[in-house]
Amino acid sequence: MANAHSISKASSSFHTLRKADQLAELARQVLVAEAELTPKPGLVDRRGSGAHSDLSLDIMRRSASAIAPYFAAMAAASSVAPMDHLLRAEVAAIGRKAEAAMLRETGGSNAHKGAIWVLGLLVTAAAQSDDCSAQTLANDAGFLARIPDRAQPQLVSHGDMARSKYGATGARGEAYAGFPHVVEIGLPVLRAARIKGLSETNSRLASLLAIMASLEDTCVLHRAGDKGLQLAKEGAREVLAVGGPGSQRDDAALHRLDRECLAWNISPGGSADLFAATLFLDAMERDLYEVQKDSSVLEESHGTV
Hints:
The protein is built from 12 helices and no strands. By secondary structure, it is mainly α. The protein is globular.
């Protein structure tokens, strides 16, 4: 009997570690897929560094790989613990280690700080749930986010400054609310575009633009203020209004928005993080542990229209 118990316990531990690794790999893949999506206004993509002087596609890929083991650690911790303040504290501590690993890998550049928060919560929720619906995982992640992190360093981030100055809730508020821009905007737009027969690239661009058109993106607010945010939101709405990605009139509108973002030093990083979360929940809801392959033709050099 003791032997059988040991085998059962070993099997359970193996299953836990395997799921943790699968979730971490999925998180890494969605971060790479987000970075590689092209053409994105103001963001790093296959054409270049967008509005960033300290990031590149290679840095984004390396950063995603550097933080993946910490997503696995979050998942492993969650699989054996209830959603309480102890798990919240452990996941937060792992998240801070992930940030340190990211900064070491990137030479001090912030490639994925917001994504560590967003995907860390979702990975933690997914690790202990048998219900992989997007709504359930988002709600569970929101529940964990709302538990105070008592050990949180009292450091003022760019998001904190934007929240204080403009009243935007940022990634923290999005998580507290159960990721409405992912569940109610990003996912429905992504899937509707696929149903219409759009390429995977254009479906993903439509999803990102829809999030951009609605989100009070604190990354944009920090870089360009409220006027810059309104420019980015209105530009995204214009692209969608003329037919969206894949339409004849979209190309000029999207590239015009890209040029305006570069001129205003706008990088909608908050929207990008929530788009990555959209890809993560899309895969989870379809019982996949990998991102759907994108066979669309992607630009490799920064062009203009």
